[in-house]
Design a protein that fits this description.
11 strands; two-stranded antiparallel sheet; about 240 residues
């Protein structure tokens, strides 16, 4: 059991953008190492951690090539990009002292295990962090949906949506609307009806159906993950 908080098993959703640091696109090693240290510290406290990582940091560089491309082909490119991020994160986590396994929904046996639910749960029980790469393995689904799906499958107690420089959920985009109001608590259904940018509708619906709470918080603050896991009210809680 976790020593200092209410959660024993979490699913952390990391956007690709959170790995960029100040770069226009790509992966900032110092940023990845900082995130890895936060995750390793939470893991050391006894929390079982699953991670789904996006690929916005890499796919920005491919956007021009993907313009006008078949949607399914472009989505598969994005899935492959998540594997690159997963491997970078695995290396940083193990450097920080946290044993880590990468499981991919797309078979790449040389660098990652295939995604097998029971094996993933066994890794978690054995004290290993599991990074889920390759999205859902299907085009037309986002990594948000992959996060909701994997969280339900491994019986996580909460989905942690780590945002890059955004404190939580707002009534509108705070970068566009200066009058946007911060929302500390909201239900899944309200978020769907109001079309708030928590995660995509498919992912939100999946969390609603499985009673999965979602904590949306700013990953840019040091120690943010630990504060959330310890039960501190950080960012926005989306619940039933």
């Amino acid at each position: 059991m976790a020593e200092n908080g209410p959660y024993r098993r979490i699913l952390l959703k990391l956007s690709g953008e959170s790995l960029m640091g100040d770069l226009e696109y790509g992966t900032d090693p110092k940023r990845v190492q900082s995130i890895a240290r936060q995750i390793a510290a939470v893991h050391a406290d006894g929390v079982e951690v699953g991670i789904v990582v996006g690929a916005g940091n890499i796919y920005r560089g491919l956007a021009g090539a993907a313009e006008g491309m078949d949607r399914a082909t472009a989505d598969y490119m994005g899935m492959l990009a998540t594997v690159l991020n997963a491997l970078a994160l695995q290396d940083a986590l193990e450097t920080a002292g946290a044993p880590t396994r990468v499981q991919s929904a797309i078979t790449i046996s040389e660098v990652a295990e295939p995604y097998i639910r029971r094996r993933a749960m066994r890794h978690l029980e054995k004290g290993r962090i599991v990074v889920f790469a390759g999205g859902t393995g299907n085009p037309f689904f986002t990594t948000d949906t992959a996060a909701a799906l994997r969280a339900a499958e491994i019986r996580a107690e909460v989905v942690l949506m780590a945002k890059n420089g955004v404190e939580g959920v707002y009534s509108a985009d705070p970068a566009v609307d200066p009058d946007a109001e911060f929302i500390p608590n909201i239900t899944h259904m309200e978020a769907i009806e109001r079309r708030l940018q928590v995660m995509d509708t498919t992912a939100l619906s999946l969390c609603l159906e499985n009673g999965l709470p979602i904590q949306v918080f700013n990953m840019s603050e040091d120690g943010a993950i630990g504060r959330v896991v310890s039960g501190e009210q950080v960012g926005t809680l989306v619940s039933t």
